[in-house]
Design a protein that fits this description.
By secondary structure, the chain is an alpha/beta fold. The chain contains twelve helices and twelve strands. It has one domain (6-316): TIM Barrel (Alpha-Beta Barrel). Strand 6 (165-167), helix 6 and strand 7 form a beta-alpha-beta unit.
Length: 357
């Protein structure tokens, strides 16, 4: 298959960055790098410096390309958006509702506070990437994504109809259906022979394709299955699988690989995030094979993302071979250990090393 890209990735900084970046670079040609560092990446200068640190942390000879993003805050100005676009290295701006997830304290308190930034993004065509959950304590954790669609996403898209939006790491039937409906309309509206002008897309993680919320509670409380938005019921997993394998161009690969040291997940207030970078493609292959749709993996992993972001598709190829191997129980992570997603489970596919066309 064509060499894939990861359209939603956390690589952290410092020794954590050093520990994880090689795993992604071995699997993917490019990745959209999330900006939720402490402090967050809010300016183009910070994104440039972070990009340089990522490039410096890569294994020798790697041609991996980090695609940078800015972290939207109530203080982001239109001028900062125009500067980001002009830099050529910033490919999106990330909206974290304040308090929704890991390192989101500096996030947006209300959409009204970011009107100028959103207008500028629409004008210069810089995509908005959203963590789509409401933070209202009155809303059940498992409903926060579905409620976000009605309360935030639909009004936002109505106000900024030309703004291109990526609904990140979708986890519900409601999100899959909403993105599917918009995509079908936009595909139908495209002139014959022309690519559709999509204004809405969604990334889907391997954990949300492979597991439902029972995984968090099977035989005890399992912190390594805890991420946000949290795993949902089986009906939602099936809807996500249907969307990912539909062939619709609005759905593409975004691992949301989100490394946290094992002791910070095995904790009274465990961190949210699953670390899937070392075996992400193999996990997706398992999900697609389970749905009888292995032939659709290439477009999901290698075509739809670059088409939406208006970047060239990769020229190189990779090969997955059928084998049997066990995901390690734990991996080194700076001075600590990290437990990868689905540690100890057996996979039926493995990325063949070093193959490039
Ligand atoms: C992410 C992280 O750890 O940075 N965690 C997660 O559970 N997905 C943040 C995010 O993507 O929401
Ligand atoms: Zn998120
Ligand atoms: Zn994420």
């Amino acid at each position: 298959m064509v060499r894939p890209d990861d359209w939603h990735l956390h690589v952290r900084d410092g020794e954590a960055l050093q520990a994880v970046i090689g795993a992604t670079a071995a699997q993917f040609a490019r990745a959209i790098i999330m900006p939720n560092l402490k402090p967050p990446v809010t300016t183009t200068a910070q994104a440039q410096a972070y990009r340089a640190r990522i490039l410096a942390a890569l294994p020798a000879g790697s041609d991996f390309q980090p695609l940078m993003t800015l972290y939207l805050t109530d203080a982001t100005s239109a001028a900062q958006i125009r500067e980001a676009k002009a830099s050529g290295i910033v490919h999106g701006v990330k909206l974290y509702p304040a308090g929704a997830t890991t390192n989101s304290d500096a996030g947006v308190s209300s959409i009204d506070k970011v009107t100028a930034a959103l207008e500028a993004m629409q004008a210069v065509d810089l995509p908005l990437l959203v963590h789509g959950e409401v933070v209202d304590a009155a809303v059940d954790t498992f409903d926060r994504e579905a409620v976000f669609i009605d309360r935030v996403l639909m009004p936002l898209r109505a106000r900024f109809p030309a703004l291109r939006v990526v609904f990140e790491h979708i986890t519900t039937r409601q999100a899959a259906q909403y993105v599917t409906a918009v995509c079908r309309e936009q595909v139908a509206a495209a002139p014959a022979g022309q690519p559709p002008a999509l204004t809405l897309a969604a990334t889907i993680t391997p954990q949300h394709l492979l597991y439902n919320r029972n995984a968090i509670f099977s035989g005890g409380l399992r912190p390594h299955w805890y991420c946000l938005p949290i795993l949902k019921r089986e009906e939602h997993r099936l809807a996500l699988l249907e969307a990912a394998t539909s062939g619709l161009p609005a759905f593409f690969l975004g691992t949301d690989s989100a490394p946290h040291a094992a002791h910070l997940k095995e904790h009274a207030a465990g961190c949210a995030g699953c670390y899937s970078a070392p075996h992400a493609l193999e996990l997706y292959a398992a999900a697609f094979e389970g749905a009888g749709a292995l032939a659709r993996l290439e477009a999901f992993a290698g075509f739809h993302g670059p088409d939406f972001y208006r970047l060239p598709r990769n020229a190189g190829k990779v090969r997955l071979r059928r084998t049997s191997w066990t995901i390690p129980e734990s991996l080194p992570f700076g001075g600590n250990q990290i437990v990868p997603l689905a540690s100890g489970e057996v996979l039926a596919w493995q990325l063949a090393p070093g193959l490039e066309a």
